[in-house]
Specification:
Helix content is 29%, strand content 36%. It is α+β, with helices and mostly antiparallel strands and 171 residues long. A hairpin with a 2-residue loop joins strand 8 and strand 9.
């Protein structure tokens, strides 16, 4: 017999192979998506730090008051809530530390991204003081590193580095 056509078993096998290939591609895409979100959050953090440094260098006023002590960013990995955010503040009393009355803006990171490690301590006040800008970490001139990671996979992380000369970058 010389019949032309496709059997039901052949059709099911081709459909199953296509389904497996699509599932594999889709699962790989979901992992890439989280890594792209991580990169985006790291880039935004660098941009916010550069904006804070620029505020200090340009002697920008905060609600009509010049912040002679500079401007800074507060980060903490002490609690689950604080691991998901950071705060920009105006150091109005020039003590190189944040107090709640000095807060300008709180930035919430995207879902599934956490601050997992801060160096040199688990709570950082990073303050930029004009005109250089000098960088103060916890009241002392120095550098800092912030590690952010995907909450479900801490092996996927980015580090934001602030050098004592004011250079800010993500790696």
């Amino acid at each position: 017999m010389n019949e032309k056509g496709v059997t039901l078993i052949e059709l099911l096998m081709v459909t199953a192979i296509i389904g497996i290939l699509l599932a594999t591609i889709f699962m790989g895409y979901r992992g890439e998506n989280k890594e792209l979100i991580l990169q985006r959050v790291a880039s935004k953090m660098v941009t916010d730090m550069e904006r804070t440094r620029e505020m200090a260098m340009s002697a920008q006023s905060n609600e009509g008051n010049y912040s002679g002590g500079g401007y800074g960013i507060y980060l903490s990995d002490n609690s689950e809530d604080l691991k998901k955010q950071y705060t920009i503040f105006a150091d109005t009393n020039s003590d190189q530390e944040r107090s709640a009355s000095e807060d300008i803006d709180t930035i919430y990171m995207e879902d599934n991204i956490l601050i997992t490690n801060l160096t040199p301590s688990n709570q950082l006040d990073i303050v930029f003081v004009s005109p250089s800008p000098n960088v103060y970490i916890e009241g002392v001139e120095g550098s800092a590193m912030i590690r952010i990671a995907i909450d479900t996979d801490s092996s996927k992380f980015k580090e934001v580095v602030i050098s004592n000369t004011g250079l800010i970058y993500a790696r």
